[in-house]
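Internal ticket #5521
Category: modeling
Description: The requester needs a full-assembly model to guide mutagenesis choices. All entity lines are attached below as received. Residue total reported by intake: 704.
Assigned to: D.W.
Attached entities:
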Amino acid sequence: MPSDKIMLLGVNHKTTPVEIREKIALADGYEQPLAAMKNITGLREYYLLSTCNRVELLLVTEAGNSVKDAIVDFLFGDTVTREESSQYLYILHDREAVHHLFMVAASLDSMVVGEAQILGQLKQAYRHAAHFGCTGPLLNKLIHKSFSVAKRVRTETAIGSHAVSISYAAVQLAKKIFGNLSDKKVLLIGAGEMAELAAEHLVGQGVGSVTVANRTLARAVALAQRFNGSAVSMEELVAQLKHVDIIISSTGATEIILRKDAVKSVMRARMNRPLFFIDIAVPRDLDPGLNELENVYLYDIDDLSNVVQINKSERDKEAVKAARIVDEETLKFERWFNGLAVTPTIQALKKKMDEIGQLELDRTLARMPDMTDSERENLARMVAAITTKILHDPLMFLKSESCAGRDNSDLKVTTVRELFGLENKKDEQ
Amino acid sequence: MEEINYLLFQSALGITFTAAAAYLVFFVSQNNKIRKLARMILLVSGVVQTLYIGSRFVLAGHTPITSQHEAVAFFAWATTWAYLSFRWRYTVKNFGTFVSILIFCQLLIASFSQRDFSPLVPALQSAWLPVHAGVSIIAYGFLSLAFCGGLMYLLQERELKSKKFGYFFARFPSLDALDQLNNHCLTAGFVFLTLGIVTGSIWARQAWGTYWQWDPKETWSLITWFLYLVQLHQRFTVGWRGKRAAVMAIVGFAAVIFTLWGVPYLLGGVHSYAK
């Protein structure tokens, strides 16, 4: 193990209630906390990730220098005592820390497993840390590795492709029916919260326009404004069906508000262009018979929940695959990290030199069969002397004491490894 | 030369089998590298099929489209190139899997038929032969694509309607994409089919002095043509689409197959293949 320690401290949605999390959420951006951390002694490299679900610090510390208390004080300040904080905070070292970082990047530790947002947040956090010069060779390598792990998980598993909320399921179904949503129009009947959410997702997928129909027109107008849409009254409902493609209904009505016959006559006027009804009201707003009409698709809240259930179980299967990839990559990183230590580097360097020397010696001797034994010995001694002398300076460089009180052995190890091509060999194993 | 000709057909059959197998692997694994590979193999198959037909043309001295074997091999060739030309314009997810299996089936059927060369009967010795028969079979190529699209539409629609999502759901394209595919293939196929009937009619006038003589194949071609005409007309005027269009594409294709195989064997007539 190299002299440096990787350490990860953090709180997330699983360990910590939101009341505590919001006390440390670093709302005013990354600049100020990153600057403040410069004053903590014993920190070699550091980086900070802050999202609404987690705050995590990834540190490279000098061996034998415990920075834990200083960091905890920095995180919680005076608001939470050290004893109290220890029940929320998770502190991971080395292998576990790397594993956790990879899990986060691959979105396996997220509230909604598989959502892609976290990778963007991680990249942004890294940009800030790198910009302020907080990261060094080790964190640069580690964090970039986490990006590629996330990418690998995304391409090799289908973890991100399963819609696991009602509104995402609605979008997924709409795409299966219409393909391209950009020229499709959405009609919201009633202004419920869930309908709003579904409409938001559809707008996020680029639907053409949103129309809102509501009993109280004022509420319809207000909601329509949010989506740059228009408002209509409930009496215009059937007339509107000629123009829209996706209908989300969530009124508080106790009766069916749209009957099969009404829609059937509209289909003729629509030239049979498909209609997708989403009924998320309980009791239901729409006639269940609608689904029997040609080119009409009706999904109620139970149908959508079923889709979500199926997707969840699919996603869990993929998560197992993804976790295996993370384990694998953690192991690879650990091997690389261990190789960073000075002693194995010296050994690897000596071994490589000896091998080259021996190889060339054997070749030369094979071409000169007439040599006497003593001549052979002399030649071998010469080769050994050359390799030793070549190695002298690099070894001194590796073993030299830290300069200006800063131990930069990992930088030196990286340099020597790259210079002598020891890096690639390690990766191939 | 005949050996080369024989080998060309066998290799076309083998390559198409490989392409269909690769497409199936892609269908299961959804690995894009395999899809690219499958597409390349199918392209090679298209080239080999072209070489086969070319070599047969040289050996026979006329367009090789007069025996059962030749007509079906030409049919497979038309389907392959209709798909490849289509594929070049836009992609429909996993469509290649269905089409490549269909092409393989066509070649397999062709491989079981008598492959001897037979001299051209005097009635067929005309420059109209390649035009009339070629155009008609190219039409069949596009119509067989519409058949595959229709089949996929029905499978996908059933899952969406019944809300039971099986194996195909995630792997199939959207209903809209399949419906458009149907529309394009039917339109292209219908244009070629019309040309085939018109050129045949002109040829009949030259050969027998009458445009139309109600030969069984002529009758059935007309029935097929009307089936597609109704479908296109209804789509244009009252919006027959989706499931109805998919069913019509399948029914139309059944009529095509009957015209191609059923008529010469069951009903005979001047269009019968050389024996």
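Resolution: model delivered.
Comment from assignee: Chain B has a mean pLDDT of 88.
Ticket closed.
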